[in-house]
Backbone:
């Protein structure tokens, strides 16, 4: 997710610095987005105004020790309350953020708690819509907006594959579904999902037949189960 944010910020920020635990991904990402890979977290924190913390939650204390002196920290740690991160970075301004992958194309959703810096908020707004959220609601929001791009991508893939099986060129089929998805998303900004379904599905028509098939396969319940499974995993 940090890489997706960096791709969204490419060309917008004066400077981006990256570190990793030795995987080499920091150097690769820096080369991709025009940033700079540095040798250690200590070196990074000396030069950075804002630190985006994207480590496994179990690594929080170790990373905080290496990043001592950070001025502002944006935590991407899942299932890790803002209070816990703030305690690890005494004296720093700490925000908790949960973005989704749309930030890579500056069309993401970013749930945010904590922090007062208008400059940091402006940085995040470059990446998409910023939604202020109580810290205790982050798990539910993550299951809805953080995980759902994968579920929506699965639906697009399945529909496009079905079109290809029925004679469409595979690339064309995917393009048709992707463009339809983008247009439908814009429509859903103005109309309730139930209204869109009714507008498309005329009585006795082919869309109605498709919706009936989805009901038989319990697709709605499957999506609800996916959200619940994600929540249960996050809550341990």
Residues:
């Amino acid at each position: 997710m940090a890489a997706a944010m960096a791709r969204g910020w490419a060309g917008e920020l004066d400077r981006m610095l990256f570190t990793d635990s030795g995987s080499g991904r920091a150097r690769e990402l820096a080369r991709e987005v025009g940033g700079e890979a540095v040798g250690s977290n200590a070196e990074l924190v000396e030069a950075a105004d804002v630190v985006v913390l994207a480590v496994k939650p179990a690594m929080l204390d170790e990373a905080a020790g290496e990043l001592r002196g950070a001025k502002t920290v944006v935590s991407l740690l899942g299932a890790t309350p803002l209070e816990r991160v703030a305690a690890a970075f005494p004296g720093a301004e700490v925000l908790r953020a949960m973005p989704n992958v749309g930030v890579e194309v500056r069309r993401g959703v970013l749930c945010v708690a904590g922090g007062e810096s208008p400059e940091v908020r402006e940085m995040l707004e470059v990446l998409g819509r910023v939604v202020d959220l109580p810290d205790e609601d982050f798990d539910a929001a993550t299951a809805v907006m953080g995980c759902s791009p994968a579920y929506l991508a699965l639906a697009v893939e399945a529909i496009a594959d079905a079109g290809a099986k029925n004679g469409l060129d595979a690339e064309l089929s995917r393009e048709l579904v992707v463009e339809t998805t983008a247009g439908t998303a814009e429509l859903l900004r103005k109309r309730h999902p139930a209204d869109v379904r009714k507008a498309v599905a005329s009585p006795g028509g082919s869309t109605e037949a498709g919706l009936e098939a989805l009901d038989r396969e319990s697709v709605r319940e499957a999506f609800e189960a996916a959200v619940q499974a994600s929540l249960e995993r996050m809550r341990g």
Q: What stands out?
A: Strands lie at 17-18, 36-37, 50-53, 72-75, 93-99, 108-113, 128-132.
